[in-house]
Amino acid sequence: MTQHQAYQPLLPAGNKYLQQKWDRASYDLHRHNVKTAKPTINMTTPETYGHLGLKLKKLKICDCCNNLLLGKITHIMQTTGAVDNLNYYEKKSLNMQQRQTELLRISHENQLMLQRLQQCKSHYNGKSWHQDWIRTMSLMDTIARYPRRRTNTIKKKVTNQVTELKDEENQNETKMDERTKQENPAQNVIQPKSPFEQE
């Protein structure tokens, strides 16, 4: 039994020998295509361009700078080597006078505004408001069925506040007197009384 007779094709064929040859040829072609196939992703190194490695413009600039430095060095060597580095420049402003006049104007306006604020008097009278409030509270006490006598408590609070303010003023005055005595000890010396002064 020969080899082509033992071959079993995938599809029905009239001649097994020819079918085996055709299948073998197609398989060899497939293997050749697989071996010679190129990858879809390019993994090779990129091309190197000459103008990227050799930058002529940069070299030209470097040569120009080197020539300038060489010229300066030769000039220094041929001469005494003095360098003109005296930079005594005065700071000048183009609008200094205008800014000064503007500052003076603003300060003058602020002073005038401060004087007006200090001289102005209030249009509201707090005493009259307080008296009206006491009057309304007394009216409420007279109208109410069970008066709470709030007017008396308000008057007591007002008197207490006045007395507290007076006490604070007296304390401040005593503190100021003590400070002045400490600052001027010559005033603390008791002077002898004359016999003509009445006790």
From TrEMBL:
Region (Disordered): 159-199
Residue ranges, compositional bias (Basic and acidic residues): 164-182
Matching Pfam families: Hmw_CFAP97
Origin: domain of life: Eukaryota
Cross-referenced InterPro entries: CFAP97D1/2, Hmw/CFAP97
PANTHER family, sorted: CFAP97 DOMAIN CONTAINING 2, MIP11318P
Family under the similarity heading: Belongs to the CFAP97 family.
Protein name from the UniProt record: Uncharacterized protein
